Amino acid sequence: MWELVQGSLLTLGVRDTESRVLWTVLAAIVHLGHAGALRSANGRPQFARAASAQRASLLLGTSVEDLAKSALDSPLLTVAGNSRGPARGDGAGDPVEPLQDFVASLYQEVFNVVVSLVNRALGGSGRSVAAVQVLDCPGFQPQSGTGAGGSAAATLEELCHNYIQERLQLLFHQWTFLNQQERYDQVPFRECVAEQLLDLLT
Fold first, then answer.
1. Which ranges carry the Myosin motor domain (predicted)?
2. Alpha-carbon Rg of the chain, whole angstroms?
3. Helices (H) and strands (E) in the chain, counts
């Protein structure tokens, strides 16, 4: 699997320095996940495993103190455009939550870099309209409401989610199966194979 990833990066023309940055940040994410977070006796958040936090800080090129300040003491947490509001300063908040938000933001940045590298490879040296767009659809949503007679009644949001998911499945079926079948029907593939088999048998 690692060879396939490396080969894909070479195909996209990703330089060694660029791929090294990706692996470094991903390694830091792994170490931050292992570091964990807890509150000390005086109520301040800190990393649960100092060794993992030290490795993550080295990979990110910062000190453990600055990393803890950014990952655990952030006054305003914003992930994927959704503001969570000011962090609680009464010592009652869970220190794991801001750490998870920090790790999620790091992963989002890595993902954005990968998409930009793919788009750069598709664009080439000249002007191009080729690009990669990622659609993360919510999938089918269960009906949460209750209508008359105890039957479940879907909300408008659930209806929209399910409609989008159904249309995407139809589009996938069209491009994956129906278009391929039409292409096979245009070429006398079966007749060619049958003639070749008859030639081999005779």
1. 1-202
2. 26
3. 8, 4
Residue 187, sorted as left (phi over 0), alpha (psi -120 to 50) or beta, turns out to be beta
pLDDT, tens digit only, all 202 positions of the chain: 678 888 888 888 899 999 999 999 999 999 998 998 888 888 888 898 999 999 999 999 999 999 998 888 755 444 444 444 444 444 456 788 889 889 989 988 998 898 888 888 877 655 656 666 666 666 666 665 554 555 556 678 778 878 888 888 888 888 888 877 787 777 665 566 666 666 777 6
Q: How many CB atoms lie within 10 A of CB 53?
A: 23
On whether the CB atoms of residues 53 and 67 are closer than 8 A, the answer is yes
Angle of the 64-72 helix axis to the 50-60 helix axis, nearest 10: 100
**3/119 Cα distance (integer angstroms):** 22
Q: Which two tokens stand for residue 199?
A: 């030639």
Which amino acid, residue 106?
L
